[in-house]
Design a protein that fits this description.
Largest sheet of chain B: 5 strands, mixed
Low-confidence stretches of chain A: none
Low-confidence stretches of chain B: none
Radius of gyration of chain B: 16 Å
Strand content of chain A: 15-25%
Distance between the termini of chain B: 50 Å
Bound molecules: flavin-adenine dinucleotide, FE2/S2 (inorganic) cluster
Number of strands of chain A: 12
CATH topology of the largest domain in chain B: Ubiquitin-like (UB roll)
Oligomer: heterodimer
Mean pLDDT of chain B: 96
Number of helices of chain B: 5
Largest sheet of chain A: 5 strands, antiparallel
CATH class of the largest domain in chain B: Alpha Beta
Strand order of the largest sheet of chain A: 4-5-8-6-7
Helix content of chain B: 25-40%
Order of helices and strands of chain B: EEHEEEHHHH
Largest interface: A-B, 27 and 28 residues
CATH superfamily of the largest domain in chain B: Beta-grasp domain
Number of strands of chain B: 5
Shape of chain B: elongated
CATH topology of the largest domain in chain A: Uridine Diphospho-n-acetylenolpyruvylglucosamine Reductase, domain 3
Strand order of the largest sheet of chain B: 2-1-5-3-4
Number of domains of chain B: 2
Chain lengths: ~260, ~160
C-alpha cells in the first residue's frame, strides 16, 4: 500500500471539503477499498474516512413510507434495523461474514458497484433513490455498468431511500470462496407492478429482467416464470460458471424468490 | 506522524502511526501484542478478528487511525489476569479445537462475538457464524464442538474427537 494522508472528519461538510483535494478518495468500511489499496490498484493521496460522520448513519422511515438508510450504515446495522423491509434486512445479513458486515457500509457497496454485490439488486428492484451531498439519483439512472455509477468524483452517498414493496425476496446463489453472489435475484412486488433485478450474472453489472417483470406483473407466481429463460448474451463466464449456467440460475432463482415471497 | 489513542483490553494505549497503518500492525508491531494473527492479509481468512466496540472486525482491514477512541479487545484479553484460560479458550483446548493454532485467535474472538449475541447457538448457527474464519487443519468439527461446549451445551452427541 502506498502512503497517504488519513483524514477523519466529523461532519459531512468537512468531508466534502476534504474530498475536494486533489487525489482524495472516500473510505467507507474499507472492506473493498483496503484490499484494493494493498494491491496498489488505488493510490489516493488523501483518504477521507466517513466512519466518524454520525449524520450519515442510521435507519428511519420518511413521510412517504420509504425506508431511509444512511450511506454510512453498516450491513450489520441494516440486518438488525431494517425490520420494516424484511427482504432487505435478510440481504444485508447474508453479505460476506459477520466481521465484514460489522464494518462494510451500504454507501461503499453502492459506490463500488461490484457486478456480484448484493445491494445493487435490492436498490434496482425497489426503485430506490440514491441521495448524495449534491442530488438525488433514481436507481434506474444510477448503475452504469460493472464498477461504474452515476457518481461524480468526490460525491458522497449520504442516504438510500427504499420504497417498501408489498412482497419481496432475495435469492443468492453463494459463490462459496468469495461469499459474493454467483447469481442473485431480487424480486419486489409493488401495487403497480413487479420489478426483478439480477446481480452476479452480467458483464454490464446489475440489470432488470424485464421479461420476468412482465410475466410476474400479470401473474405473481413461480409458475409464471417457469418456462422463461434469460438470455445468456453478455453474461459473465468464468471458472465458477459459464454464461449458460448463469442464465439457468437466473430463472431458477427468480422462481425461488417468488415462491418465497 | 499522526498519533492514535484507543483502549486495548481495557488499557489506554497510544502510538504514532502512518495513515496506512492497519489495526493489526498497530497491535503486533506497535504494541508488541502478537496474539492477533495475519493469515491472508486479504480480508478472507479471519485469523485477525478482534472486537471493536464489541463487534467482530478484521484488524487487517481496518486502519488504526479510524479507531481513535475505540475500545478494542484482542485474544490477549480473553484469559484471566492470572493467565488461566477463558471459557472459550479452555473449551478449544478440551475439545481439541486447534491443531497448528494459527486460526485460533480469530476463531476464539468470532466465537466470543457469537456467544455474546446468541448465548445458546445451534450447531448450524455456529457453522454459519464462523463462515469468515478459515481453518486449514481441523476440519472445523472440533471447533464447532468447542464453541457449543463453551456455550454450556451438552456436546457428547456431536461426533469427532
Ligand atoms: C470476505 C468478503 C466477503 C464479501 N461478501 C460480499 C457479499 O456477499 N455481497 C456483497 O455485496 N458484498 C460483499 N463484500 C463487499 C462488502 O459488502 C463491502 O463492504 C462493500 O463492497 C464496500 O463497502 P465499504 O463500506 O467497505 O466501502 P469501501 O471499501 O470503504 O469503499 C468502496 C468504494 O466506495 C467508495 N465509498 C465508500 N463509501 C462511500 C460513500 N458513502 N459515498 C461515496 N463513495 C463511497 C470508496 O471511495 C471506494 O471507492 C465482501 C467483502 C469481503 C471482504
Ligand atoms: S488476515 Fe485478516 S482476514 Fe486474513
Ligand atoms: S488449527 Fe491450523 S489453521 Fe486452524
Amino acid at each position: 500500500m502506498y502512503a497517504f494522508e488519513f483524514k477523519r472528519p466529523a461532519t459531512l461538510a468537512e468531508a466534502v471539503t476534504a474530498l475536494g483535494a486533489e487525489e482524495a478518495q472516500a473510505l467507507g468500511g474499507g472492506q473493498t477499498l483496503i484490499p484494493t489499496l494493498k494491491q496498489r490498484l488505488a493510490a489516493p493521496a488523501v483518504l477521507v474516512s466517513l466512519n466518524g460522520i454520525a449524520e450519515i448513519k442510521g435507519i428511519c422511515t420518511d413521510d412517504a413510507g420509504r425506508l431511509c438508510i444512511g450511506g454510512g450504515t453498516t450491513h450489520a446495522a441494516v440486518a438488525k434495523g431494517a425490520g420494516a423491509y424484511p427482504a432487505l434486512a435478510a440481504l444485508a445479513g447474508g453479505i460476506g461474514d459477520p466481521a465484514v458486515r460489522n464494518r462494510g457500509t451500504i454507501g461503499g457497496s453502492l459506490a463500488n458497484n461490484d457486478p456480484s454485490a448484493c445491494y445493487p439488486s435490492a436498490v434496482l428492484a425497489s426503485g430506490a433513490t440514491i441521495v448524495t451531498n449534491t442530488r438525488q439519483i433514481a436507481a434506474d439512472d444510477y448503475f452504469q455498468g460493472m464498477f461504474t455509477t452515476a457518481l461524480e468524483p468526490g460525491e458522497i452517498i449520504t442516504e438510500v431511500r427504499f420504497p417498501v414493496p408489498m412482497k419481496a425476496n432475495y435469492q443468492k446463489f453463494v459463490q462459496p470462496a468469495s461469499r459474493f453472489a454467483l447469481v442473485g435475484v431480487f424480486v419486489a412486488q409493488f401495487k403497480d407492478g413487479v420489478r426483478v433485478a439480477v446481480t452476479g450474472a452480467s458483464t454490464g453489472g446489475v440489470f432488470r429482467w424485464t421479461e420476468a417483470e412482465r410475466a410476474l406483473s400479470a401473474n405473481f407466481s413461480a409458475a409464471a416464470v417457469k418456462g422463461l429463460k434469460a438470455s445468456a448474451d453478455d453474461l459473465i463466464a468464468d471458472i465458477h460458471g459459464g454464461a449458460d449456467y448463469r442464465a439457468h440460475l437466473i430463472g431458477v432463482l427468480t422462481g425461488r424468490a417468488v415462491a418465497a415471497c | 506522524m499522526p498519533k492514535v489513542t484507543m483502549r486495548v483490553n481495557g488499557r489506554q494505549v497510544s502510538g504514532e502511526v502512518e495513515g496506512r497503518t492497519l489495526l493489526v500492525q498497530f497491535l503486533r508491531e506497535g504494541l508488541e501484542m502478537t496474539g492477533t494473527h495475519v493469515g491472508c492479509d486479504t480480508s478472507q481468512c479471519g485469523a485477525c478478528v478482534v472486537h471493536v466496540n464489541g463487534a467482530a472486525m478484521k484488524s487487517c482491514t481496518t486502519f488504526a487511525l479510524d479507531l481513535e477512541g475505540a475500545e478494542v479487545k484482542t485474544i490477549e484479553g480473553m484469559a484471566a489476569a492470572d493467565g488461566s484460560l477463558g471459557v472459550i479458550q479452555q473449551a478449544f483446548q478440551d475439545h481439541h479445537g486447534l491443531q497448528c493454532g494459527f486460526c485460533t485467535p480469530g476463531m476464539v474472538m468470532s466465537a466470543a462475538a457469537l456467544l455474546a449475541e446468541n448465548p445458546k447457538p445451534t450447531e448450524a448457527e455456529v457453522r454459519h457464524y464462523l463462515e469468515g474464519n478459515i481453518c486449514r487443519c481441523t476440519g472445523y468439527h472440533n471447533i464447532v464442538k468447542a464453541v457449543m461446549a463453551a456455550s454450556g451445551q451438552d456436546v457428547s452427541a456431536i461426533a469427532a474427537e
